[in-house]
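How a chain folds remains the central question behind the approach discussed here. In the encoding step, the backbone of a single protein was reduced to a row of integers, each denoting a local shape. We regard such an encoding as a compact summary of how the chain folds. The sequence in question and its structure tokens are set out directly beneath this paragraph:

___
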Amino acid sequence: MKYKNIDQLLELCQKHNLSISDVALQDTANSMEISTDEVYEKMLQNYLIMKDSIKEGLKKDLKSVSGLTGGGAFKLKTLVDNKKNISGSLMGEIIYSALSTAEYNACMGRIVASPTAGSCGILPACLATLQNHYKFDDKKVVMALINASAIGKIISTNATVSGAEGGCQAECGSASAMIASGIIELFDGTPKMCTDAAAQALKSHLGLVCDPVAGLVEEPCVIRNASSATIAITSAEITLAGIESLIPLDEVIEAMFRVGNQMAPELKETALGGIAICKTAKELEKKILGCN
């Protein structure tokens, strides 16, 4: 059940008539030398931590040490609860849940890096919200998370999920691609549809730089978690309608890695480019870090 790229993963799915999550579950169990039940339980615990991070991040008085982050998710949830938001209850919940987890991370709360701490809000927001609205049981949601892990494994094997190496496209882009695939399996799509959705999501992030203000994973990282979650939903939605990705996911991953390598160092988590060097950003940096 070993696979190094999407083509190999899809071949295994077709050969054995298995879902992506089934293949990933067996592969993980083999590599860790534990049972598939043990792998499942570990992923269930990860999912429960994800849901808890959403809950904790929604507290009204949450504030990071820097003062840049906290309380935004509570404000948006209030808007959604009062039915005054633009995008409706499902999308509204996805957005505030992504903000919540990312803000909780910035406040040193316990999160699941998925695939990184900087992109930790994307998977939880989509999974927990869809479970809440469509009443999926934990088993189905956890298997969708395992599906997402297979996409993340392939991206990290053939490219990178590090903002320092590939920009935010490698962090939020990878997370969005991972959960777009998981969502398709959640709604009983085929393995090929899963990879099409992942390709659409990753394509939508190509070129996204990593430019944290004051070098902190707060601004614009928190907001990007929310926007990347909505891209995942969009990518899954169009795929479920039968719209295929013209470019295969393996090639999109290759393109993302190539774009990351072409980025200047200033655009890869160094806080030396992008919005990190705007006038207001530098003033905030001086205030937070006490530097000249």
